[in-house]
Amino acid sequence: MKSSNTKSFYSDFLPAFASGAVASAIAKTAIAPLDRTKINFQVSRSQKYSFTAALKFAKKTYRESGFFSLWRGNSAQIVRVVPSGAIQFAAHEQYVELFQVDKNGVSTPFRRFAAGSCATTTAGIITYPLDTARAQLAVSSKDEYKNLTSVFVQNYRNHGLSSFYRGLIPSLMGAMIYGGVGWFINDSLKKMYKERTGLKVTLVTSFVFGASAGLIGQVCSYPLDIVRRRTQTRRIPPGQTTAQSLMLIWRTKGVRDGLYKGFSINMIEGPLSSGIWFATSTLLLRMWKEGHNK
Questions:
Q1: Of 66, 165, 187, 248, which has the most beta carbons under 10 Å away?
Q2: Rounded (5°) CA angle 196-199-205
Q3: pLDDT exceeds cutoff 80 at 235
Q4: Could you give the count of Cα atoms lying within 13 Å of 105 in the half-sphere of its Cβ?
Q5: Which of the 8 DSSP states describes residue 202?
Q6: pLDDT (average), residues 107-124
Q7: Which domains does the chain have, with CATH numbers?
Q8: How far apart, in whole angstroms, are the C-alpha atoms of residue 293 and residue 22?
Q9: Separation CA 42–CA 56 (nearest Å)
C-alpha cells in the first residue's frame, strides 16, 4: 500500500509541477522576441528607449541575423522557466495548504499574498543561475557566447561561481513583490468571480485574470527588474547595493528612461506571458484532476 506522502506526491505535487512546466514553456516562447528586445534596452546605458526604437532593434536583428535570432537566448529561457514555473506552481499549491489560505469560508487576503510571494521566491532562489545566463546570452552576439553552455563555462572560468548570483538580492525582492501581488490579484479575481456568478473560471476568464495580475505585478516590481538585469550583465559595479542602484538610475535617467525603461514593451509582454501561464497551468491541472477522479 502506498503511503499518504506518496499519494500526495502523485495526486497533488506532480500534476501541479508538470502543469507549471508546460505552461511556462508555452508562455515564454510566445513572448521571446519581445523579451529579448526589452532586455537589450534595460541593460543599455546609451540607447534611449521608445517603442519606435524597439521596433528598429527588432528589424535590425532580423535583417542582420535572421528571423530566429529574435528567439536568441530562448533556449536558456526555457531551461530556466520550465523548472521555475513548475516549482512556483507546485510550491504555491503547497503554500496555500500550509498557510490555510481561504479555508472554511474565511477570506485571508494576506495569506493569499504570502503564498504567492513565497512560491515565487522559492522558484527564484533555485533557478537563479539559469536566469543570469539567459540574460547574458540575450544581450550578447554569437562571437561572445555560442550557446548556453559557453555562457556557464566562460563565466565560471573568468569570474567564478559567484558570478551566477549577481543581482540575486534585487531579484528576490522583485520576486516577492511580483509573485505576491500577481498571485493575490489572480486568486482574488477568481474568488470574486466564483462567488458572484457561481460558475467555473473559463480559459478566457483565467487568461484575463492572469494578464491583469501580471500587469499590476510588473508595475510594482519593474524597477527592481531593471537593477537585476543590469547587475547580471555587469552594467552595475560590484558592491553597489540595490538601494544605491535604484537611486543612481533615478538621479541620472529619471523614471521613464531609467526605472521604467522599456516598460511599454512590458505592458504587452508581461500580461500576455502571465495570462498564458496562469490560464494554461490552471487548465492543465484541472484536466488532470478531472481525469484522475473519473
A1: 187
A2: 90
A3: no
A4: 0
A5: P
A6: 94
A7: 1-293 (1.50.40)
A8: 22
A9: 16
- The count of other CB atoms within 10 Å of the CB of residue 146 is 13
Q: Which of 76, 67, 82 is nearest to 26 (CA)?
A: 82
- The whole-model pTM stands at 0.76
Instruction: Please answer whether residues 93 and 12 qualify as being in contact, where contact means their C-beta atoms are separated by less than 8 angstroms.
Output: yes
Find out whether 134 and 76 touch, Cβ atoms under 8 Å: yes
| Alpha carbon distances (Å) from 265 to 35, 163, 221, 222, 258 | 8, 28, 15, 12, 14
From CA 53, how far away is CA 105, in angstroms rounded?
Answer: 51
The predicted pLDDT at position 1 comes to: 43
Q: Which three cell numbers stand for residue 271?
A: 500580461
Q: Is 124 left (phi over 0), alpha (psi -120 to 50) or beta?
A: alpha
Q: Where are the alpha helices (DSSP H) in the chain?
A: 4-8, 14-30, 32-43, 51-65, 74-98, 109-138, 148-159, 168-197, 203-232, 242-253, 263-293
